[in-house]
Amino acid sequence: SILINLKYHHDENFTGKPVAGCMKSQAVITQEAAEALRNVQEDLVMSGYSLVIYDAYHPQKTYNQFNEWLEEEDSYEIKNTYYPNIKKPGLTGYIKEKYAHVRGSTIDVTIISLKDKLLSPCKKQKRSYKGQKDIVYMSDNSLDMGTSYDVFDPLSVFENNNIPEAARDNRILLRKNMQNHEFIPNNKCWWQFTLVRDTSIDSKF
């Protein structure tokens, strides 16, 4: 019953095109991670919610395309949507966070109400936060997390206090349910979690 919308399978992502190694619409993860996600989903469904998977395992050629993209000229629309406050050379750290996915136990997720239908493509909305440059919010009807998926910005840090209280509560809801089943959150990106039983886990998580 988990909803799947793999962002790198189509062009609604920060590269603006489908990404190598992501041509299939099926999310691939380790068996242990799949079992843990099933448990998360069972808890969420009891409360009227569902997980949405944005990204799971992908191979080295995916990262090769990400690194090639870092060398390309900026697209105004892509920059404005995914990294409005950061120059492209500053995105290296965000791309490195994605290398965890090669192990198969890292997953990018959010939550949606069972009453709502997942939208694809997303609806773009302008967001204004106090003391922050306006951002584009890509609404797919999932719970409002303050920023949409893969927005490389300080606003995507879990503890950022500039997002609305309701969005902070939604981030806490997601994190609590994932941690209850042994997933470790990435503080830099509210959507990324790695199964704690992955013995190759990097200490930065």
Describe the fold and architecture.
- The protein has 205 residues and is an alpha+beta fold.
- The protein has five helices and seven strands, in the order βαβαααβββαββ.
- It has helices at 31-46, 60-70, 76-82, 92-97, 165-179; strands spanning 3-4, 49-55, 106-113, 123-127, 135-139, 183-185, 192-195.
- The strands form two sheets. It has a five-stranded mixed sheet with strand order 1-2-3-7-6, covered by helices on one side. A two-stranded antiparallel ribbon has the order 4-5.
- The longest helix has 16 residues, at 31-46.
- It is globular and about 45 Å long.
- Mean pLDDT is 92; it is low at 199-205.
The secondary-structure element order is EHEHHHEEEHEE
Which structural class do the helices and strands define? alpha+beta
**Numbering strands along the chain, what is their spatial order in the largest sheet?**
1-2-3-7-6
**Overall spatial form:** globular
**Rg:** 16 Å
Spans of at least 5 consecutive residues with low confidence = 199-205
Helix content: 25-40%
- Strand elements, count: 7
Total helices: the number is 5
Q: Which percent range describes the beta-strand content?
A: 15-25%
How far is the N terminus from the C terminus?
Answer: 28 Å
Summarize the main sheet. 5 strands, mixed
Mean pLDDT: 92
